[in-house]
Hints:
It is found in: Membrane. InterPro entries: HATPase_C_sf (IPR036890), HATPase_dom (IPR003594), His_kinase_dom (IPR005467), HisK_dim/P_dom (IPR003661), HisK_dim/P_sf (IPR036097), Sig_transdc_His_kin-like_C (IPR004358), TCS_sensor_his_kinase (IPR050428). It catalyses: ATP + protein L-histidine = ADP + protein N-phospho-L-histidine. The chain is of the alpha+beta class. It contains eight helices and twelve strands. The chain folds into three domains: 3-162, no CATH class; 197-283, Helix Hairpins; 291-436, Histidine kinase-like ATPase, C-terminal domain (Heat Shock Protein 90). The strands form three sheets. A five-stranded antiparallel β-sheet has the order 1-2-5-4-3. β4 (105-118) and β5 (121-130) form a beta hairpin. The two termini are 34 Å apart.
Amino acid sequence: xxxxxxxxxxxxxxxxxxxxVILLLLPTLVNKVALLNADNRLLQKEExxxxxxxxxxxxxxxxxxxxxxxxSYNLFREEFxxxxxxxxxxxxxxxxxxxxxxxxxxxxxxxxSSTFDLGGKRYLLEIGRSLDTIxxxxxxxxxxxxxxxxxxxxxxxxxxxxxxKLLLRPLTLIVKRLQRVExxxxxTPKELNTNTTDFLYLNNTINAMMxxxxxxxxxxxxxxxxxxxxxxxxxxxxxxRLENLxxxxxxPETLLEKLVDNLRTLHRLxxxxxxxxxxxxxENEQYLKNEAVNIPQLAxxxxxxxxxxxxxxxxxxxxxxxxxxxxxxxxxxLLFTLLFxxxxxxxxxxxxxxxxxxxxxxxxxxxxxSIIDTxxxxxxxxxxxxxxxxxxxxxxxxESHGLGLPIVNTIATFHGIDVSVTSVKxxxxxxxxxxxxxx
Length: 439
């Protein structure tokens, strides 16, 4: 999972957890807030009542007609105010829940009770608000709070996602730049436009590391090229001398077999050196890509060239080529070597009475050419390394796979051809080459 996805997931999960915790605590918190708000309103009404009594006198509430008490309910019995004369020894100052009987119904109120003295008499003021009304307000507050919290969570998740994307953009640029590098020599160091020191340090470290890798690859290519070139001359001289000894009638019969073995060893060594030199020259781009190569026709030429070798090994060769495709910027000699090496390996490591099929067909992205054999196959653990020139594998008969496949991979990379290999042990191997459409 990508770092940005992990950060976004963590941010979303933490906010959801916080939301759920608040959701569990919300009824209690909102009820307390609603109750505090109701108490504040009762206190405000108490102040207003005292102000009215001070301005208008107690007689405006308690008159001879009403006796020594006054009571008033609003239309829906949600609130009430009562004022009555009490004994001088009684003192009440509280806010608490209380049951009251209203119109033959018992209603629970939040009641503020307060005593005061006026004109030598003591009065009890009570102001009440229905708990049902407070509960309705509490539910409404809970609903609004729930929507508000949900909106805040969603907004912060999107904001965090956008911020994480912006914050990690330098890292994304670094990763994309590395993904586009098919070979260390194609890497170009670039400055990173960010003020995040961690990303600057990472970018500078990668630039320095890739510079060291490029230098190491360059030295390796130069070494292989130079050594290969220098070794070819003495090997050719030795080969000529041995061939002269073979053709010399004075050479003893006992030495002829040894000379032939030595020539065979020199020939194998020469092929290895030429393979290394070919790889080095391709990687150093010493070959031109100025030819238009017809891929189906090239496959037919390879099949024609190698047909006798296949017959000698009792392997049947089949062509299944449809459509037409031309690779505009290519090197025909290198592409011939690419296909020849793969088909030659398919013959070499095939079974008696086995078969090889060269199948080609146009695709949406170019042309796909497959070489399918019924040979001994390649072990699954060896597949990731078959194109490495630094690893050597051996077939069941003890013969080495050599540098044929590294050459194939180098030529394919040089032409921008995608190569994929699938294999089943003792059943066969399939090489697929995807030739691209060139713009």
